[in-house]
Structure formats: structure tokens, C-alpha cells
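Example: D-alanine--D-alanine ligase.
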Amino acid sequence: MSLPKLHVAVLMGGWSHERPVSLMSGEGVAKALESKGHKVTRIDMDRDVATRLAEVKPDVVFNALHGVPGEDGTVQGMMDLMGLTYTHSGLATSVIAIDKELTKQALVPHGIPMPGGRVVKSADIHERDPMPRPYVLKPVNEGSSVGVAIIMDESNYGNPIGRDVAGPWQEFSELLAEPYIRGRELTTAVIGGRALLVTELRPKSGFYDFDAKYTDGMTEHVCPADIPDEITQACKDLALRAHQLLGCKGTSRSDFRWDDTQGVEGLFLLETNTQPGMTPLSLVPEQARACGMDYPDLVEAIIAEALKDAEKRKGAK
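Written out as C-alpha cells, the predicted fold is:
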């Protein structure tokens, strides 16, 4: 749909672990909208965000927040109460998708392959491993690989994990423990009900953690991924199904691990991100560009989805 000139509030920043990424995403979005002739108000979210949005009275809010509380349903519920039109997923979807355990409960019964695992108390892992090594520990509701630790026999965390060793157990009272899937890191973006491409992420060292994601030169992006056609199609099918089953709006990005010795049986969905990054190194803009959609057009397409969804909900009342 062709967009009229709009007043867009770009919501960014906040106080999550992902604040720096959100600020980069938000500034990129704001500049893209201004290049298209839209009026933009940048809002670095603080505790008075509702008052600020009420003063600004935007036509639509572009939600460029990452992590809690911008991605977990809190801000979505506030904007619903205020009657605001906003981009990306709504309250219920956001609550489920930010929580890795709830996501499994929503997707696995529908045949989406995800790693097994369970939520464990951080204090308990200093007594014993929650499962045989190698395994992964991650916060239940953080994104951007914040606080992820891979626990292997040869790792320097100790056995059992030492209380004084730096890791997510020092920041989070509960963690999700999952079997470690050896192999390759793949990701697929969905925009407006269409799965785009598959990108393989090849970190220059270690694994695809927060620093590897957002430090230029630390990770090679192979887009499209050099993988068999059946794996490409499986990633696209699973990403689109996850997007639909969770009720995602606008855009999402699904991340996979693929054990390439096991064929399609070795492919597992790790999580679906409802508000993927929009920084210069981010994967959704990269895939969109490879499909012929430049960054400003991508931003407008996400806003167009929000406006279309708002009209649909208005018509249903």
C-alpha cells in the first residue's frame, strides 16, 4: 500500500540490556522515515513514556524497542489502552514470544522442532549440571543472545559451575537449560506474511553472541546461505508457521541451529523474535535488501502492515 505522509513516533532506547541496539535501530528507522518525507518524533523511552506519547499524538508508533519492557507485552498493553496504532506484534504474542519456554509450549504441539530443556534455578547449577554436557544456559526472556553460556566439558566454568565465575547465573535467578546442538546458525526473516531468505551466521570466533551480532567484522553473514534446497525450504516454512502460530505482525525473525550431519532431522527452531533489530548489521534489513527492498521501503512496509491491521481491527468492532 502507498503510504500518505504520516507523523511517526519512533520509540527506542529504554532500560533493557539491549538499549544500545534499540537506539541504533530507532535512529536508522527515524532517518529512513525522514528520507521518505514523514514527520518523525524520536522518543527515548523513560517512565513517562505514556505522557510523552499523549503529547505527541502520532499517527502511528514505530516500536524500535528490544527486550523488556518494550518487547514483552508491557508497552504493547499501554499503547492498546491509549488507542495507539503501533508496529510489530501485539500484547498476547509479545508475552509468549519473549518467553522461550512459553514459545515452546505454543509451537512444539504443532510440530515445530525445538530443543528440549527445562527452566532451572541458577542456584542449583552450582550443585550439579541440570543435564549432560554440552548444554546451553540462557535467560528465559532476553533477546540478542544476552546472557547465553555454552557449557562444555572443556569450558572454564568449572564442574559444577563455580559461583564466582562470570555468567548469566549471576544476573538471572532462573535460566533455561537446553541441549547444545552442534552445527550451523541459520536465520529467516518474515515480512508481511512472506518468508524471505535464509542467512547463515559464521562468527569469526566463539559463537553468535551479543558482541558477535553487533560488532562490525566479528561475524560473516552468508546471504543467501549455501545450504541444500530442502534446508532452505524447511527454514522458510518453519519461520512462516511460527510467525502465524504466534500471531506475529509486521516482521519477525526466526533463528535455527542445524546439525548438517543429520539432514532436515537436524534442524531446530531456537526462538522467534517479534521485534528484530534494524541496525546497519541487522539481519532483516539485509535479507530485505537481497530481495530488492531497500531500508526505507522496508520501514514503510512495516508501518503499512500496522496500519492495515489497525483498519482490520476497527472494522471488526
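The longest strand covers residues 194-203.
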